[in-house]
Amino acid sequence: MSNENMQDQENVVENTENVGEQLTMEDQLNAAAADLDKARQDVLYAKAEMENVRRRAAEENDKARKFAVERFARELLAVKDALDMAQLDTSGNFEALKMGVDLTHKALMAAFEKSELLEIAPAVGDKLDPNLHQAISVEPSEQEANTVVRVLQKGAQLAGRVLRPAMVIVAAPK
Q: What's the pLDDT score for residue 14?
């Protein structure tokens, strides 16, 4: 082979390698573009999914707020029915009326208990707890200072959270 033929062959090999590199780089560019497109689609999907989750959570929150008292209301229906029957009673029998009021009170207390609505009823001599009691006044007493002398109004708490503190009169310091 002549020098000239060898030179032509080398040029053909170089051109083939350059074309191979160009195809490879073009293929790489296409692959990168495809990956970028897939990543964009994944981000859009994730964004849409998060929006759906947020919307569903807001709907569930609204439903929870709207129907939070449903169980309590269902329990109170029995109390309302008992009061309605008491109003219809025209017998004039005081003992029967008192018994009906007692049963209605028990039904109400059962509804409160099922709903975790509990009384705050301090006993005479209990230490004043500012988290549960509200001291209305102080009065001289033989008891230790800052202890409950009288309960003016019982308090209430719902699931451990104070709705209304018990109103009490406490013993004055000696």
A: 58
Q: What is the pLDDT of residue 75?
A: 86
CA distance 115 to 118: 9
Give the list of residues 6+ apart from residue 1 with CB closer than 8 angstroms, or none.
Answer: none
Cβ–Cβ < 8 Å for 120, 133: yes
- How far apart CA 99 and CA 106 sit, in angstroms, is 11
Residues 6+ apart with CB under 8 A from 30: none
Element (H, E) at 161: strand 161-164
pLDDT value of position 86: 83
Hey, where are the domains in the chain? 1-67, 69-115, 117-174
Confidence of residue 50 (pLDDT cuts 50, 70, 90): very high
Give Cα separations from 52 to 7, 33, 55, 58 (angstroms): 67, 28, 5, 10
pTM of the complete model beyond 0.85: no
CATH for the stretch 117-174 = 2.30.22.10
The pLDDT, as a whole number, for residue 10 is: 62
